[in-house]
Structures are given as C-alpha cells and as structure tokens.
Amino acid sequence: MKSFFILFLLIFVLASLAQLLLPWWVVGPLCLGLAAWRGGSARAAFGAGLLGVALGWWLPAAWLNLNGAGLLASRVATLLPLGGNSWLLVLVSGLLAGLVGGLAALAGAWGRRASTPGIHQVH
Fold it and tell me: Where are its TM segments located (predicted)?
C-alpha cells in the first residue's frame, strides 16, 4: 500500500507538471519509467498510473470548464456523441488519459519484473 501511494504521488505530480510544458502523450513514457523504477505489483502500478494521470487531467480540465472554457468544451462535445455535455467530455478525456498512464505503468512494472532476476513469482 505504501509503494502504491508513493508511486501515485510521483505520477500525479510529475505528470501534472509535464503536461503543462509537453504534449499529452508524455505521460506514457513518464509512467513507464516511474513504474519500472518504483513500481511494486502490477496491479498497484496500473492503479497508480490510472489514478495519477486521470486526476492530473481531471482537475485542470474541470477548473477550465468552470472558468470559461466550458463553451469550447461543449462545442467539442457536440462533435462527439456526448450530446454537448462538456462535463462528460472532461470525464471521458480524463478516463482515456488515465488508461494511457495505467497501461504504461503496467508495462513498466512488467518490464521491471522481467528484467530483475529472482522476482518472477506471481503476487
């Protein structure tokens, strides 16, 4: 549980900062590297990547949606089958970003397990 929380905080803080300056897909290599370095079990790495990136995406998107960017989000939501609901767009985009982070962290945890001798037992 402790390794999950540490990995979650690392991913949340670093992914949030990286997304301010770099493209959205930078969360993939970031989560992969952090999970390979600090990851515990595969389940904990996936959960930390999913929650860390999703929260790092949802919080700024919700803030922007509340403070004026909701008009643009609702227009984008009308292009997609979301019925013009900007909050549904925030939810879906955060979930997709979280899946990218979770799957990248899972790959990092599996890579760590495959490259470290003696830890091939199933948890």
Answer: 44-66, 87-110
The Cα–Cα gap between 121 and 63 comes to 44
Q: How far apart are CA 104 and CA 71, in angstroms?
A: 32
Q: Which two tokens stand for residue 97?
A: 């970003």
State which amino acid sits at residue 60: P
Instruction: pLDDT tens for the chain, 123 residues: list them.
Output: 788 899 999 999 999 999 889 998 999 999 999 999 987 889 999 999 999 999 999 998 888 888 876 677 777 777 788 787 878 888 888 999 999 999 999 999 999 988 877 665 555
Say how far apart CA 20 and CA 101 lie, in whole Å.
16
Residue 80: CB atoms within 10 A of its CB come to: 13
Whether the full predicted model's pTM is greater than 0.90, yes or no, is: no
Helices (DSSP H) in 23-85: which residue ranges?
27-38, 42-64, 70-79
At 54, the amino acid letter reads A
Residue 29 tokens read as 């290599």
DSSP letter at 1 equals: -
